[in-house]
Amino acid sequence: LVPEIKEEGYIGFHGIGGGGAMLAADALLRRGFKLANYADTSGDPPASKVYRVIKTILSQPKIEAYVLMGSIIASQEQWHHGHAIVKALTEDLKNRPGFPVLILIAGNKEKETHKIINEGLKDLPIQLELYGRDYVYQTEFIADRVEDMVKKYRRLMG
What we know:
- This protein is an alpha/beta fold.
- The protein has helices at 18-30, 47-58, 79-93, 110-121, 139-157; strands at 10-16, 34-35, 39-40, 66-70, 100-104, 127-131.
- Strand 5 (100-104), helix 4 (110-121) and strand 6 (127-131) form a beta-alpha-beta unit.
- It is globular.
């Protein structure tokens, strides 16, 4: 069951690993955003499970961004997340021009995962920012970027 969102400021939030994701969630909350959900796909899930989680997040009406925060110490093969991200976002965001997507994904197969995401989403008309291990502890920077992207999206949506 997806609750109805009646105001702005809700973010679709996706974590990989609790600690780092919670720090990012806290930074977003301090900016005045609200988390429409808290989903975590750590534990080396298959791409099909990650895909279903992303589809559920994106099905929430009126969310103003999708934010994925991954952990550098994740022992899983991150490219499974990369494939799921590309499939779900391509299906759901092709008709949402300018929709903010910020992904911080680090750990095993990080470079390969970034390549999968960049190549798979290059033609999607979204605002995409992709970060890796150098930004895991830069939660204020991430929150700043999300805030700027959402403001731009609101202007686009009029």
